[in-house]
Design brief:
6-stranded parallel sheet; 14 helices; alpha/beta; 27 strands; 31% helix; 7-stranded mixed sheet; globular; 31% strand
Length: 472
């Protein structure tokens, strides 16, 4: 039976996801069988498991950290907010949509019991299960509805770590406030505190750490100094990058942007800039990313004047790429009978039509991409309601179908994860470099596991694993 460790935080963005990934990686390197788990995640940055089904990228990353095949069991409940409704994905499949009030007050309990069964199954199969909480576990107005934090910890008697982001300030107050709001049973589960993103001399924290120990008899098991990394971010709390490299790569940040982890390899190999105004629309490569609400974001492009600027950029020979929702926006028209119940003109840079259906495609795919006289084996995933016509200018040949469009400087595809295929990405970036008169460059590779492993090695130097391993 696994030892369960719950990682919760004083707030959203405290660093729970990365701490969980690091614990998964450190323990797996020690020879333990480890699995991640998060009862409920709210994120538009989802991904398709290689085994099928939709899950949060956070638990996908944590599974990679464990050297496990990412599986929807690691994230039973995925919530996707859209147009004042909550779309519920359970065990990887779309379940239903509710108003936030209806879901919180009357639907959560039915999912919680099923989720605990999945957690107990994972505990039977592993030595450790690293459980991630959500937001703050001590929001007094939400505690009675909680199915992600201490309700889970209490159900399996999980040893609990509270993480605080010291960069934000108020970290000691956050920990004390959390402990004081916890009831006796919840406080008894807390075994350690971690301070994240620290700058400076650790000795400056001694008085505060002594105060916490004197008050609660609980040790601080980690002080993690800030370190930049290239592990994909989980959600909209990401600090959007505003610097690009020699190639001017710009990504349109519309209100319902999703799957922005697609661009982590570009960020590492060159740098990218996220933009949200018409004045910023220029560059060597302009990308329209995925969207959770394609029609709504297309209307936003029109209202902000970005649509017209993208058309002008295309005429001026900027390379325009649309991925999934961005691909749909570039087409001639979108007939949406599922979400917005409307028919709307697209940007028209791709002379095809898009139609939305209720059935959602969620699958891993492999095939060949054909680009500038070369072909590359690629893999990734599709996550969509829409279907777009296919013409002779298709881009990718999958086993079951052809995908996308490519002609001159306009390209579109439904494939998420395109840039994680490094032979293609390096060739693509060098094609853009040659077109600008730059020398070709060796971009190397991007390995998600290597990024996690390197960061975990750093974190392991700043947390007390000897103390954590004593928890039974």
């Amino acid at each position: 039976m696994a030892i369960p460790i719950m990682v919760t935080g004083t707030s959203s963005g405290a660093g729970k996801t990365l701490v969980c990934a690091c614990l998964c990686n450190i323990l797996s390197k020690m020879g333990y069988s480890v699995a991640p788990f998060k009862m409920q995640n709210m994120s538009l940055n989802s991904i398709v498991s290689p085994l099928g089904g939709e899950m949060s990228i956070a638990q996908y990353i944590q599974a990679v950290a464990c050297k496990k095949t990412p599986c929807v069991k690691y994230n039973p409940i995925l919530l996707k907010p859209q147009d004042h409704m909550t779309y519920v994905v359970f065990n990887g499949e779309y379940y239903a949509k509710y108003s936030p009030q209806e879901y919180m007050k009357s639907r959560k309990s039915e999912f919680f019991e099923k989720g605990i069964e999945i957690l107990k199954e994972l505990m039977q199969q592993n030595d450790y299960v690293i459980i991630e909480g959500a937001g703050s576990p001590a929001e007094v107005n939400l505690i009675k509805y909680d199915i992600t934090n201490m309700a889970v910890a209490k159900a399996v008697k999980a040893h609990t770590i509270i993480v605080a982001d010291i960069e934000r300030g108020g970290s000691f107050a956050g920990i004390v406030g959390t402990m004081e709001i916890f009831n006796k049973e919840e406080r008894a589960l807390v075994k350690g505190f971690i301070f994240n993103k620290y700058y400076g001399d650790k000795s400056m924290l001694k008085d505060g750490i002594d105060y916490l120990y004197d008050r609660y008899k609980i040790k601080t098991v980690g002080i993690i100094p800030y370190k930049k990394h290239s592990i994909p971010e989980e959600d909209s709390l990401v600090s959007w990058e505003s610097k690009t490299g020699e190639l001017d790569i710009r990504i349109v940040r519309y209100p319902h942007i999703s799957n922005f982890s697609d661009f982590e390899p570009l960020q590492k190999k060159n740098g990218v800039r996220y933009i949200s105004t018409a004045q910023e629309v220029s560059g060597d490569l302009i990308i329209l990313p995925g969207s959770k609400s394609t029609v709504s974001d297309l209307l936003w492009l029109n209202e902000t004047g970005i649509s017209q600027k993208i058309k002008q950029a295309a005429e001026n020979k900027s390379f325009i790429l649309g991925i999934c929702g961005g691909f749909q926006m570039l087409t001639r028209s979108i007939d949406d009978s599922f979400e917005s119940k409307s028919n709307i003109a697209g940007l028209g840079l791709i002379p095809l039509k898009t139609h939305f259906e209720e059935r959602k495609i969620t699958e891993s795919v492999k095939g060949k991409v054909f680009f500038k006289g070369r072909n590359f084996f690629i893999s990734g995933y599709e996550l969509r309601h829409g279907r777009t016509e296919c013409a002779e200018n298709w881009l990718i040949d999958f086993d079951s179908h052809k995908d996308g469009f490519f002609k001159d400087n306009i390209m579109g595809t439904y494939l998420h994860g395109l840039f994680y295929n490094h032979d293609f990405t390096n060739f693509f970036l060098n094609y853009l470099r040659r077109s600008k008169g730059y020398e070709e460059k060796d971009f190397g590779t991007y390995s998600l596991y290597d990024e996690i492993s390197s960061f975990s090695d750093y974190v392991s130097e700043h947390i007390d694993m000897k103390e954590i391993l004593q928890w039974h």
